[in-house]
Amino acid sequence: MSFERIFRESKVILTEGALVERLKTEFNVKMDAFLNHAMLIYDDPKALELLYKQYISIGRKYNLPIMIMTPTRKVNFESTSKSKNLISDSCVFLTNIKDSYPDYSKNIMIGGLLGCKGDAYSGEKKFDINQAYDFHNKQTSNFKKEKIDFLFAGIMPEINEAIGMAKAMSETKIPYIISFMIRKDGCLIDGTTLSNAIKLIDEKVNPKPICYMANCIHPTNLNEALNNNKDKSKLIRFNGIQANASILSPEELNNCGVLQQDDFDNIIDEIILLHNRYNLKIVGGCCGTNDKFIENLSKKIISTVHVE
Predict the structure, then answer these.
(1) Residue 33's pLDDT band (cuts 50, 70, 90)
(2) What average pLDDT does this structure show over 271-282?
(3) Helix-, strand-, coil-residue percentages of the chain, each rounded to 5
(4) What Rg value do the Cα atoms of the chain yield, rounded?
(5) Which of 67, 78, 295, 298 could serve as a FRET partner for 132 with CA atoms 20 to 30 Å apart?
(6) What are the DSSP calls for 195-209, one per residue?
(7) Whose CA is closest to 124, among 254, 16, 33, 222?
(8) Whole-angstrom Cα distance, residue 214 to residue 21?
């Protein structure tokens, strides 16, 4: 079944929970300065596989489709001196995991994960639109050769790079999602309102993203951000959250040396509220979440949302 069909027909789609923070805290893994956890497909594949399988097994348990993504947000042509095949090998790594669930594999969707060049928490302008396209086109061209279901641009803080990224992704003809870093005021980190960001990308890029999302934001903060967008007509295109377990702002999170966690039940209740109010059908976790969070989220969804 195609990603577009699953997205269109499903009431709820899971995504994975935290990977990087769990690898640091539970496995004491030291991250690569340039590639973050991408090199673990070679250096510690069992730890990475364990976390992916925890999330997939929860999706299977509750009969929910799930999106899993390559560990490649930091992988680009400037950072891959250690391995020129990281994108390809990451896709193969996830495909092998998917194939180990023959009874459920049709519900496992593999995504190619991309990220901004700079600091996702700063909103600093690194590119104009054309420069962003040229930079990210090298990544998307590599993903185009692989067996994946969708592309995903994670925690994009600045509109020019998001537009250039979307242009590069659109040319692959692979379904894709743009996910933003958003403040409580309803704006990307660079000050662009969420509604205007959606409007600009939809006007400038063809084919358009399947939908838009936010990463690394507490659902309470996202609810406030969506309420602060006066042009609600564009929010019909906003369909997902990977929730941060902390209520802190992006700037506070960026300078915080201690992992912050709100009560999981509170976060889950807020996600259900967002689902009901804004049709946020793609739900999962980011920093501070884990398999327990995804399990409890899935259980609550099954008990409160008619997913068939």
Answers:
(1) confident
(2) 95
(3) 45, 15, 40
(4) 18
(5) 67
(6) HHHHHHHHHH-SSPP
(7) 254
(8) 18
Report the percent of the chain where pLDDT is more than 90.
83
Q: How far is CA 193 from CA 140, 183, 213, 281, in A?
A: 26, 10, 14, 22
* Lookup: tokens for 208: 């358009």
Residue 149 near residue 110, CB atoms below 8 Å:
yes
Q: Are 201 and 178 in contact (CB under 8 A)?
A: yes
177 within 8 A of 212, measured Cβ to Cβ: yes
- The two structure tokens encoding residue 292: 């327990």
For residues 186 and 195, what is the distance between their CA atoms, to the nearest angstrom? 8
- Alpha-carbon distance of 55 to 66, in angstroms, equals 8
Sign of CA dihedral 65, 179, 2, 281: positive
Cα angle value 7/13/19 (rounded, 5°) = 125
Q: Using CA atoms, how far apart are residues 162 and 154, in angstroms rounded to an integer?
A: 10
Say if residues 180 and 115 touch (Cβ distance below 8 Å). Answer: no
Length of the chain measured in residues:
308
pTM: 0.95
pLDDT in tens, 203-260: 999 999 999 999 999 999 999 999 999 999 999 999 999 999 988 766 665 555 555 6
User: How many C-beta atoms lie closer than 10 Å to residue 261's C-beta?
Assistant: 15
CA distance 66 to 59: 6
* Residue with more model confidence, 130 or 306: 130
